[in-house]
Write a structure and sequence with these properties.
5 helices, alpha+beta
């Protein structure tokens, strides 16, 4: 798998931290039990508990048979998931997300990842107006009534960029960015990387850089997810690719 780290090798922790800083993505294997997933997660991050997490801090991701049609609960069904940032409707989404396969689907269920740096470069190179508009402060509102006003691309004081996105019914858009949503959706899909994970395999990503999605599936697919803050220093967001060209105005934090 891409960006794979052998967790048993000397220096694995240092390599994980370096890859997350450089590319925002690490792939792992050998996590063949919930206990192993939890042990790895707690060595890497301070777990963030939330609505769907279990008592140990992990979230069990499977088709419950009762959540598929509830807004904001699509991950607990068996349908496809659009590219999104985890916990996008909160003021400060967790920086890291770990997702590990416990049991693969009978059919489908592949994980789909989009590098926000590549998507950002795409929108500025081909549709500069789109990129600039999507960096304007408070042009999106993600979440229910207690959600968060934000923007797709947040530009920090040091010109690094964070991405935050969702496309479901909990996303509302300022008219300024409405014309650019088709380009945004196309760019998020065009650069997806497909991971067909087997039991024990997973990925750890920078939630300010990578979007994740899922294909529909059949069967008793089981995954475990951990969200948290890194136990090592990480700068905010990512450095825009040189091909991004025009630099947008600074956004408000969020």
């Amino acid at each position: 798998m891409r960006n794979r780290v052998d967790l048993a090798a000397p220096g694995a922790a240092k390599k994980i931290a370096g890859l997350l800083r450089d590319t925002g993505l690490v792939t792992v294997d050998g996590l063949d039990s919930r206990a192993a997933v939890l042990a790895f997660a707690t060595r890497t991050m301070e777990l963030v508990r939330h609505r769907d997490s279990d008592s140990d801090g992990l979230t069990t991701i499977r088709d419950t048979g009762r959540h598929a049609h509830r807004t904001g609960f699509a991950g607990l069904g068996n349908g496809p998931l659009d590219p999104h940032t985890e916990r996008s409707g909160t003021p400060n989404p967790p920086r890291l997300m770990l997702l590990v396969c416990g049991q693969a689907a009978a059919t489908g269920g592949e994980c789909l990842l989009t590098d926000g740096q590549v998507m950002h470069s795409d929108l500025f190179a081909g549709e500069q107006e789109a990129g600039v508009a999507l960096a304007q402060a408070r042009t999106a509102f993600f979440g229910a009534g207690d959600g968060h006003a934000t923007q797709v691309f947040t530009v920090h004081d040091d010109r690094r960029v964070s991405v935050r996105l969702r496309f479901d019914k909990l996303a509302r858009w300022n008219p300024i960015v409405q014309p650019y949503l088709p380009q945004l959706r196309a760019a998020a899909g065009r650069h997806q990387v497909c991971l067909a994970l087997a039991p024990g395999q997973g990925y750890l990503l920078d939630n300010e850089r990578w979007l994740h999605a899922r294909r529909a599936f059949t069967g008793d697919r089981l995954f475990w997810r951990a969200l948290g803050q890194p136990l090592f220093p990480m700068r905010r967001g990512f450095a825009p690719a040189p091909t991004s060209g025009r630099t947008p105005m600074l956004s408000e934090a969020g």
